[in-house]
Amino acid sequence: MEADHIYDYLERISNLIRMEARRSGTVKGLQPVQLEALHYLASCNRYSNTSLAVAEYLGLTKGTVSQTLAVLEGNGMIVKESDARDRRVVHLQLTETGRGLLAESIPPKMLRSALSSLPVEQRAGVDSALNQILQAMQSANQLKTFGACKTCRHHNILEDSNRRCELTGERLSGEDADKICREHQLPSQT
Ligand code: SF4
Fold first, then answer.
1. Nearest CA among 58, 52, 66 for reference residue 40
2. Probe ligand 1: pick from 46, 48, 50, 149, max atoms within 8 Å of CB?
3. What's the fold here for domain 2-117?
4. Contact residues for 151 (Cβ-Cβ < 8 A; gap 6+)
């Protein structure tokens, strides 16, 4: 059956990606889950860089995430900063050391090199198909989409070309537009 084959491919690819992440992370004393948390924090926006959002994104318990973040903080990969408006909210920011490690490790060289061997149209096709599978699975399981801000139904490009989040009412930069967000909703969602 087609789904069996696709599952086999995805599982095998995931294992290879984890294997390489384990190798590169181990060099710096990190486990794959710690590298995944670091990658999430580098990709998310300012509304999503909290321990709760890390737990939601990775599908982990708060306890596991708290241990993961403690290791990252202890290794100097992240720092904690209290929110300027609500001191109870703690934001997790990458340090230069954390960014440097990520740049060396993600995306894994093995994946980068395999993808670069495909023609451009085929790469775009893989990208689009995987995106659709992800969205369908998230929707069926009523999970947060964690999509890029520019694809959110609340993302508004104003007449003067500035951007605004219609959920928070705050201005967004071009850099914000590419970040992922825990409040993201697809245009088809209500
Ligand atoms: S527009 Fe959507 S994705 Fe962007 S910050 Fe607002 S809620 Fe998040």
1. 58
2. 149
3. Arc Repressor Mutant, subunit A (1.10.10)
4. 184, 186, 187
Q: Is 154 in the pocket of ligand 1 (CB under 6 A)?
A: yes
The Å distance, Cα 183 to ligand 1 centre, comes to 6
pTM passes above 0.85: yes
- Index of the ligand 1 atom closest to the CA of residue 150: 4
Handedness of CA 110, 116, 119, 124 (dihedral sign): positive
Instruction: State the closest ligand 1 atom to the C-alpha of 182, by its place in the atom list counted from 1.
Output: 8
pLDDT in tens, 117-170: 999 999 999 999 999 999 999 888 889 999 999 999 999 999 888 999 999 999
Domain limits, the chain: 2-117
Q: How far is the CA of 108 from the centre of ligand 1 (A)?
A: 28
**Model pLDDT for residues 43-100, shown as the tens digit of each residue:** 999 999 999 999 999 999 999 999 999 999 999 999 999 999 899 999 999 999 999 9
